[in-house]
Amino acid sequence: MFRALILAAATLSLGACAGVIPQRDPANALYRLGPMDPAYTLSASVTVREPEASRLLAGRFMSAEDETGAIRYVRSIQWTDRSTSLLQEAVLDLLRGQGGNVALPSQAGALTDYEFSWRISDLTLKGDTARCRLEGTLLKGRARSVYRQASISTSATAAGRTDAARAQALVEAGQACARDVAAFIAAAAQPD
Q1: Are 125 and 164 in contact (CB under 8 A)?
Q2: What kind and span of H or E run contains 4?
Q3: Do the Cβ atoms of 68 and 80 come closer than 8 Å?
Q4: Which of 4, 88, 99, 166 is the 20 to 30 A CA-CA neighbour of 157?
């Protein structure tokens, strides 16, 4: 009986705590990188993995670095999905091929001539500047040996000081990164 009373009291107090925690305001606007038109032709098949990134960069929130170097989420703007997923989709959109020369997500589980693995090290705002920086590795077929590597960095300047203008600049920087990745893959992934 005593245990039941303690359990009931604990349940009531936890319920009261949940009511006190402030709810996060929803974002005013959601942003995406694609869809993007195909722009680069493949000469081989390629698996494009979802990029790795820190939790700060890989989620749905957009981040900004202030003048002291502190990074904070910009609560009024968000991505429509995880930023890593959006970048992967943008690169896949940009690559086109014929026959067996296709770009596939790693989720497809297909064997391809090459595999592109990458890591996003920056996808943030700093003042009016949006920055995207990543490192990528093109692996050769089943052996998974390193074939080529690339370091890509892009930026875009916001047209205004509003969060919406800054978010649009981050979209532009992300799209430029995706274009550079797709161009690298198309140029480097050549048939044997």
Answers
A1: no
A2: helix 2-20
A3: no
A4: 88
Q: How far apart are CA 114 and CA 40, in angstroms?
A: 16
pLDDT tens column, 12-57: 555 555 445 545 566 788 999 989 999 999 999 999 999 999 999 9
Please give the Cα distance from 83 to 87 (Å, whole number): 6
pLDDT in tens, 109-120: 889 999 999 999
The pTM (predicted TM-score) of the whole model is: 0.84
Question: What's the Cα-to-Cα distance from 18 to each of 12, 13, 143, rounded to whole Å?
Answer: 10, 9, 52
Residue 36 CB contacts under 8 Å (≥ 6 apart), including other chains: 90, 93, 94, 175, 178, 179
Q: Which two tokens stand for residue 82?
A: 């995880």
Q: Let me know: does 140 contact 107? Beta carbons within 8 Å.
A: no
Torsion 34-37-42-44 (CA) sign: positive
Q: What b/e string do you get for 133-165 counting C-beta neighbours within 10 Å, with b at 16 or more? A: bbbbebbeeeeeeebbebebebbbebeeeebee
